[in-house]
Amino acid sequence: MQGGAHTELAERLRRAMIDRKMRQSDLATAARVSTGAVSNILNGKSVPGVTTLELLAASLKISGEALEELHQLRDRADVRTRRLDTFLAAAQRAAREHPYPGVIPGAVPPLATVYLHQQVTPHPRLESGSHGGVDAPPRPRSESLPAGVVLSDAQTCVILAGPGGGKSSLLRAHLAAVVERWLQGRGDSVVPVLVPAAALSGPPLTQALASAATAELASYGLTDELPPAFFGVPPQPGVRWLVLVDGLDEVADPVARKEILRTLNAIATGDQADLYRFVVATRPLPTTELDLLGHAVPRLELQSFDAVDVEHVAGSWFGALGLAEPEDTAKRFVQDLARAGLADLARIPLMTSMLCQVHAAAPDTPLPAGRGQIYRDFIDLLHKHQYADGPTGIRTQLCAGLERYGRNAVAKAEHTLDHLQDLIAHLAAERHRGNNSPVVTILESRPEAQRPSRVPADEWLAFLDTSLRRSGLFTIRAGELVFLHQTLLEYFAAYDATRDPDSTALALQKAFHIPARYGLFSRLSGDAPGVKPRLWLWRFWRSPHGDSSFIGFLLDTAHRSNPDIGARYLARLASLRAGLDGCKFIAEQSQLGTLIPGDVLHAAADLCADLATERTLVGDDRLEAIEALVQLGDSRAADLYANLATGTNTAVYPARRVDAVRALVQLGDSRAADLYASLATDTTVGGFRVAAAQELAALDDFRAADLYANLAADAGIYGDRRLEAVEGLARLGDPRAADLYANLATDTGLSGDPHRSGLAAAIAAAQEGLPPYGMYRVGAVHALAALGDPRAADLYANLATDTSLHGLYRVWAIEGLATLGDPRAADLKKLIRP
């Protein structure tokens, strides 16, 4: 129970408000504080923050000694509120000052200076039945939304992006924005807390959050350890914790990842669902894993920059780095990227930041060739910055602390610093292999890091720890030194694996030598699409499994010492001995920015083009072949998409034909509208004719209305699809919609698509032999009533007395009649048995 200083503080503010003849809403407006926050403060439910109290006092004309007394009361108010204030202030400083990946230390601009808000789109998922029934559901059409809007939603979600795609920066920027609102007294429906996914493996959630937040914020002004109980209750009445889970993919153990997801799902759907909301950021993971968080949890892809975005971000970077005429420099920089073939790679946010800094350091030097060289040049730049000569250089400072132990100690320290990158590479390789031992434990076992005999163990360990911290490649997370970004770990792990010719050959063979025998099982299971054996039990090659980002770095670091060593592995993947999966691997590596020989790229593109027209392949595989062709930048993709969508490909699953036209839209191909119109009249497409009409309407094509009307009257397609067609017509404002709704309401032959999930399918499963799907007839009358059509009442009454319908549908009809205020509803309700 609140009391003492807290009660006195609320009472003084309330009296001052009454004396000035103000209402709570007036005070909230004057102070620019949310009405809910003012209400909670005046009713003793929460203690105002320092900034909020200043805003309220200024609006109430409280100053001098009276204001000082209010601050003293606030300081003596409940411990929890003061702890929340301290937590928010520390979180704000961390979000502003915390190093983030791809930035040279010492020249770190505020994140807000160079951060560009990105968009997200729903992640497409293959639904059940994608290779089967004529009318299985299509993949949803992607609609772009601002990422910040999605994170402000009340629903738990997953944010997906590839390496360097901006996931961590998004979470940090959102945290900073929400915390800023709290500290300005505007409040929010959530209080964010950022936690690495690895910290959630093992301990209960509240303990994990407390440990991670305390370790993260200790150096940013958090004076007391946060207890688990702090995260076990709402931050304030009616407010939830927004748990921002970063780097789920960095948890290497799949079992541990699955356990984390199960835990989050149990909390999000259990008794504490109103206390927490989760946002999980990760690289793409298997669908079966992410399903553990809940099938209904949205999965959203964070979109890369476009050319305009890259120029905008480059201008911000060049301005922050002090370059003259940053906007003009950014324009020339974007042109240089295009000429160097780096335009696509530069759309990845981390690549943008690295390229900008590398270019700013040496504007007259040619841009790096590929992702591996970008990392190499960036790390070289970082090394020069950190280990500059002179008394102020970090190298001099690190060695000076050991001078009292003699020349041998200093010489050993210098030897260690000379091999620091090799030590970091060894650490990265151990981490990549799953070794979670403390950093210094891993390093001190190496000859390059062995302690001089006269130096105390604790001082030598402190030297190693400081050397890593000052390298610019690490940060502190949950009290542990970790790489600033997962890709830095992957680069150095690949660097370690290719340290000499023998290790390089071994690493490449381990990654790429994955033979398999083509047999009956391979053919029936479809696990070798596009592979064409000469004989049964013919050997074919599987594409590398595991982390494609690491394998890309492996190829690049191997290429540096021997340009031909990886070529033979890549060449056999671009052949019929590896098929579609090999081509997809090469296309993915091309997108990552890995250096791929030109002849391999051409061979992969030619094979993809052939597979796209291979009628023995299912539509999904043919579509994926064209998608790989797009990734390879081949101009044949558009024609192949168009061919896949045409009426000559009736054997292709209808949803994939619609997907092919969607892909054409993404390519900006003018044929898309005509193809949608053709699909909408193609009877072999079944219910996907409606999906095609919907896509055509989204393009604002005038033909959509007539197509909707024709589909709504077509008894040859399922009733739910016909209802969707009328709904589309109604959205266009077409007056025909009302008559079509009325016709559907009296159509006794309506049936639903058995492949589609939802209430209808559930009822059908529970009620074997259920009569035609009356829910669509009732739904049609609901829609008619929403249009204000007077026919709705009689149609409801007719459905309520139709004994051929399931009782549930008749109840729905009576409820609809009641909402219209029709007196017949009461009498009709008596006819339905409870």
How would you sum up this structure, described in words?
With 834 residues, the chain is α/β, with parallel strands linked by helices. The chain has 41 helices and eleven strands. The strands form three sheets. The chain has a seven-stranded mixed beta sheet with strand order 2-1-7-3-6-5-4, sandwiched between helices. The longest helix has 19 residues, at 79-97. It is globular and about 100 Å long.
- CATH fold type of the largest domain: Rossmann fold
Q: Examine the secondary-structure arrangement and name the CATH architecture of the largest domain.
A: 3-Layer(aba) Sandwich
Q: Could you list the spans in which at least 5 consecutive residues all have pLDDT below 50?
A: 125-142, 757-771
Distance between the termini: 47 Å
Strand content: 5-15%
Task: Give the C-level CATH assignment of the largest domain.
Answer: Alpha Beta
> Could you say which structural class the secondary elements and strand pairing correspond to?
alpha/beta
Number of domains: 6
What is the secondary structure topology, with strand pairs?
Elements: H1 5-19, H2 24-31, H3 35-42, H4 50-59, H5 64-76, H6 79-97, H7 111-114, E1 119-122, E2 145-146, H8 147-151, E3 157-160, H9 167-183, E4 190-196, H10 205-217, E5 240-246, H11 254-268, E6 276-282, H12 287-290, E7 299-302, H13 307-320, H14 326-339, H15 349-361, H16 370-386, H17 394-400, H18 407-418, H19 420-432, H20 439-443, H21 457-469, E8 474-477, E9 480-483, H22 486-497, H23 501-512, E10 515-518, H24 520-525, E11 538-541, H25 548-561, H26 567-573, H27 579-592, H28 598-612, H29 619-631, H30 637-645, H31 654-666, H32 672-680, H33 688-698, H34 704-712, H35 719-731, H36 736-745, H37 759-766, H38 774-786, H39 791-800, H40 807-819, H41 824-829
Parallel strand pairs: 3-6, 3-7, 4-5, 5-6
Antiparallel strand pairs: 1-2, 1-7, 8-9, 10-11
